[in-house]
Amino acid sequence: MEESDPSVKRWEDMQIDLLVKVFQKLTVTELISGISQVCSSWRLACMDPILWKTLDLGQWKSNYIKVHSSPYIWVANESNKELTRVLRIAVGLSCGSINCMIFHYNLYMNDKHLLHVAEGSPHLKRLVLPGWNLITKDAMIKAIHMWKELVSLTMPSVRSPSYVMEQIGRNCENFSELKIMGPCDAKFVQAIATFIPKLKVLSLRCSKLYMDDLLMILDNLKQLQVLNISHCVLIENNPPPDLPRFVRKLDMEILEKASRLQSFMYCMQETCIPCQRAIADDGIMRWYNYEDRFWATDEVSSLAH
After folding, report:
1. Which of 1, 40, 60, 234 is least enclosed, having the fewest CB within 10 Å?
2. Cα(280)–Cα(260) distance, rounded to whole angstroms?
3. What DSSP string describes 84-146?
4. What pLDDT is attached to residue 229?
């Protein structure tokens, strides 16, 4: 039998750093598809921290059905099992090196999923998690306790925001960026002002916001530098009978208070498509009606993905 040509290099003999450069071209789905099991060299390359700075599951959705009672969605068991598998492999390969996690707004983690990723990502700095339907208060508190280095959070509008803001304020001393995907009411603003008064960046794009709450944000968040209310549905709290309920133009009081900010982003144009969508949805966006990446955009670059 003829011996193989010694000049021909095998994949498993390729230098680890070169393999890592090749694997950087792959998606998370491709990285967890089994290439780490090809050989020891490939597994070492798959575990390189460079590949796991960001765990982006922004295209991954749960197979779910909407229901009328809390938690308002029912996730198919096979979908839960698949998500468990994906998170187990990804978190295992990352070896604790994940700095940023991005999840689709229609990906519904449960408590076990959340706590698994929290335990495996102690250095997490940014979390994009718009779907909280299946996550309990206790689980979220435990997760935040593990994320001491958390800086940025994208979250849905929740009925009891105080506990979230309080835990962030107590445990995440460098926290500075918040994006709320949904209506921001007085309870939310009060919780933010009370527990994370050093917040620097706040995005409420495409949300519903009462004018009194906007004034509360500008008056109470003294260290706020960037405020994005682009495409928001702005509402007067107690409009006179002869005046419209919706605000179509910001008054001078708002503009003067916002002038201290480094950046104040707003858009209220009738020809603007996102504004039209927010109005049609009354500030409670039906993201599924629009192109898939619309939910992920933001005028604040650090909050877009």
Report:
1. 1
2. 32
3. HHHHHHHHHHHTT---EEEE-TT----HHHHHHHHHT-TT--EEE----TT--HHHHHHHHHH
4. 97
This prediction's pTM: 0.90
pLDDT category of residue 31 using cuts at 50, 70 and 90:
confident
The number of residues making up the chain comes to 305
Q: What is the pLDDT of residues 196-212, one digit of tens each?
A: 999 999 999 999 999 99
> What is the Cα–Cα distance from 198 to 241, expressed in whole angstroms?
39
Selection from 114, 133, 139, 109 nearest residue 124 by Cα? 114
Residue 23 pLDDT grade (very low, low, confident, very high; cuts 50, 70, 90): confident
Where b means 16+ CB within 10 Å and e means fewer, 147-175 reads bebbbbbbbebbeebebbbbbbbebbeeb
Q: In the beta sheet, which residues pair with residue 208?
A: 233
Please check the confidence at residue 289 and state whether its pLDDT lies above 60: yes
Query: What CA–CA distance (Å, rounded) separates 272 from 279?
Result: 11
* Residue 188 near residue 178 (C-beta atoms within 8 A): no
